[in-house]
């Protein structure tokens, strides 16, 4: 009887160690490059390649600045015209072997080389650490940070919605800013939760925050998505009416340096021109 219990305990220990090893290797693996194609640009415009990064969460052991520098090399290899970063640059998880200040954590982002620049919003962990330090460090890294503001980038107007999770988002102000600037509206948000309130005039919203669940178990699914909508906006492409939402799984981790069933990713979104209608106005 005792021998049987010892064998069972040993099997459980080996199984647990195996799962932890797989989960850590998944968390530190190179990201999957996911692709989406949307024909929303005005006719005659050249296609644009927009790369979405999110949830970098710089901290040891899984995301030291050296790993972020490697991920920047992968990002540049996609040859994006524009890089959008949906927040959570740093981590404050208690399981971290080392935490980093904003300056060393974001310094590798200075090596990003998109033709039209890098635009970002902050996430909840950034605000919890230091909003001011985030602004200073990202400016040094050449990242344009938006908080309920908008900026014109080529034919696009990028609206940067501040973090909804910490109740800093002001969607009406952001939409009004986008209308003033003009251009094809693209909304960048840390959390996907504001999506239902986004007007139909904004055809595309990009977000992160959910990590696609980070830990997704068989049958059970995601342990948590940190979204008020559960799995509805937890991951990937969601289309509702004339609007499209793309939610990235992110690059780093929260709470634990582990991932199961939700690999790190980047989204390369190709924006193509709408087809011109033979009867005059542009048509989707």
TrEMBL record:
<dbReference type="InterPro" id="IPR004843">
    <property type="entry name" value="Calcineurin-like_PHP"/>
</dbReference>
<dbReference type="InterPro" id="IPR029052">
    <property type="entry name" value="Metallo-depent_PP-like"/>
</dbReference>
<feature type="domain" description="Calcineurin-like phosphoesterase">
    <location>
        <begin position="49"/>
        <end position="212"/>
    </location>
</feature>
<dbReference type="InterPro" id="IPR051158">
    <property type="entry name" value="Metallophosphoesterase_sf"/>
</dbReference>
<dbReference type="GO" id="GO:0016787">
    <property type="term" value="F:hydrolase activity"/>
</dbReference>
<dbReference type="Pfam" id="PF00149">
    <property type="entry name" value="Metallophos"/>
</dbReference>
<protein>
    <recommendedName>
        <fullName>Calcineurin-like phosphoesterase domain-containing protein</fullName>
    </recommendedName>
</protein>
């Amino acid at each position: 009887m005792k021998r049987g219990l010892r064998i069972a305990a040993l099997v459980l220990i080996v199984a647990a160690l195996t799962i932890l090893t797989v989960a850590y290797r998944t968390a530190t693996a190179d990201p999957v490059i996911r692709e989406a194609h949307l024909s929303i640009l005005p006719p005659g415009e050249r296609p644009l390649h927009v790369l979405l990064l999110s949830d970098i969460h710089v901290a040891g052991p899984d995301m030291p600045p050296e790993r972020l520098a490697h991920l920047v090399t992968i990002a540049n290899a996609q040859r994006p015209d524009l890089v959008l970063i949906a927040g959570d640059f740093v981590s404050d998880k208690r399981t971290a072997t080392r935490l980093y200040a904003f300056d060393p954590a974001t310094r590798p982002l200075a090596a990003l080389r998109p033709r039209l620049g890098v635009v970002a919003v902050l996430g909840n962990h950034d605000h919890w650490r230091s909003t001011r330090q985030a602004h200073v460090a990202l400016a040094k890294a050449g990242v344009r940070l938006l908080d309920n503001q908008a900026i014109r980038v080529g034919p696009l107007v990028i609206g940067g919605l501040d973090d909804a999770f910490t109740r800093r988002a002001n969607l009406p102000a952001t939409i009004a800013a986008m209308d003033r600037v003009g251009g094809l509206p693209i909304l960048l948000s840390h959390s996907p939760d504001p999506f239902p309130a986004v007007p139909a005039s904004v055809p595309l919203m990009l977000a992160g925050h959910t990590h696609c669940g980070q830990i997704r178990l068989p049958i059970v699914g995601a342990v948590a998505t940190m979204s008020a909508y559960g799995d509805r906006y937890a991951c990937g492409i969601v289309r509702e009416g004339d609007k499209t939402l793309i939610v990235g799984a992110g690059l780093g981790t929260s709470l634990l340096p582990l991932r199961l069933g939700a690999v790190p990713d980047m989204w390369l979104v190709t924006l193509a021109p709408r087809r011109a209608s033979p009867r005059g106005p542009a048509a989707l």
